[in-house]
Amino acid sequence: MKCLRSVAVTMVMGCSLTLGQVPALAESPPSESPASPTSAPADPATADQGVRSTSEPDAPPGSSRAQPSAAEPSASDQAAPSASRPATPPASEAAHPDPGPSPFQRWVDGHIPAPSAVLPGTGSAASAPGVPPDSAALWHAIQSSPTGDPFFDATPANIAQYAPGDIIESRDVSWPAVPMVFLTVVTPVQRAVQVKFRTTNSAGAPSFGTATLLLPFGRWTGPGSRPVLLNAPPINALNRRCTPGYVFSHGYDITAGNGNDFVPSPTMWAASRNYAVVIPDHEGPLMAYAEPTVAGHIMLDTVRAIRHLMPDQFGQSRFAMTGYSGGAIASYAATMLSSEYAPELAPYLAGAAMGGLPTDYESFAKTFDGTYASGLMLSVTLALAREHPEILTRMNHAAQWAAISPIKDVCSSTISDIGAFVPYAAVANMRDPLHTEFADMMFRRLSLKGRKAGMPIYIYNGVHDPWMPVANAEKFYGEQCALGVAATKSIVGGEHIIGYFNGFSGSTQWLGERLSGVPAPNNCEVAPRSDAAPRSGTPSPGR
Hints:
Blueprint: H1 2-15, H2 91-94, H3 103-111, H4 136-141, H5 150-153, E1 167-172, H6 174-185, E2 191-200, E3 206-215, E4 228-232, H7 244-250, H8 266-272, E5 276-280, H9 292-309, H10 311-314, E6 319-324, H11 326-341, E7 349-355, H12 361-368, H13 374-387, H14 397-403, H15 437-446, E8 457-462, H16 470-482, E9 487-492, H17 496-515
Parallel strand pairs: 4-5, 4-6, 6-7, 7-8, 8-9
Antiparallel strand pairs: 1-2, 2-3, 3-5
Helix pairs in contact: 1-13, 1-14, 6-7, 9-11
């Protein structure tokens, strides 16, 4: 076991590549990367060009809204997603080359052979300065291993014909999901339905998402349609079999966990109030853990899909969202992106609660580089490379081997153990990788700062949280207040874990009021700015 842990640590060092290690390959993306299509359905003749950028094996036909082709592109046929947001760095970045490898990094590449025998043409840039390697083969090799279930593995060949939120496939998974929900979060539900739908990746290309709808036993007798809670648990994993959706549909696996939901769970709370619950697999088909745009799009397209799936029951329902830690990334991103990505949902989005939220990736990465929390950061970096393949071009040979190792399939139960105390510089091929122009570009790309939440928000944080400092929660709250958002803040006792339990009651009470139609309070201490308007999209609703 110790030997296995040692191997894992070494391999995760490779995964650690870092948000900042990768020079601007965006100027010359891999030839297999598709141009970023819009979120609108593409012409059938060109549908395949935008499909293969976001998942591994693809799915069988079976949409209730449009019939996808039976052709299924293999994982080896798919291209890496193109860079999101700025496709190329600003001129000032491109004009200043990133620093080369340190003597230690050169030593690593000189003593550890590149995995070229397995993946031809993926040598490190440290071995061939100035020559960007072909990272396509490496990008394919770092993807999550298939689950064996086409529902999670397969992309329809003509996915671009669907609009975001359109249903590709749905299925009843009451067995084994109903007993699984009871065993994991002590919650009785009557029925479980999984839905697979079209969404959009970080580059704007068509992708798919999955989510599980849990229906309570009682008939809804309250006013209006039955409210719906989207619960985004902190999945924090690199393999699709670690998602709540896979566990609900295939039963408990000790190596997969249950998606890191806690007791008390928002699912338990919502079901006790006779609300419907939806649990999205918010990391997406590439398991791009912590990629905010992917998570936000999936949350919003989950709402669209549930409204399409049962329009008579949920077409006019209020939807609220919640998430903590890794799950808070999803609820946060959905609020920041809703006005521009799903403006038509504004009347139905009642609010979002988020706790222990990582809003500042740059601060987080630099604070925990080489510390006890570095294993988490290394895993995040590998996951982000699935959506941002430029990251791969600054791995040294040790990192390349790590990225294609079994590390790529770890679940949340082991994700923090591997790579602890390993600094990014140990696995990069450029000195001081977090302080480079490319790092700055990546941090900007991943940031949602400056946007206005498209719905009321509730922010809570442990006062002694060492991972998610309370100062960041205070700052985010102040920024949203200045933009005119109806915001509520709750700073509770405890660190990261205790903060969840201490904040649970307040967050669920706030969510219950929003789902009941009570107008959101505005507890901001500052007046909104005169220019408080969303950066793009439509104004947020004033509920």
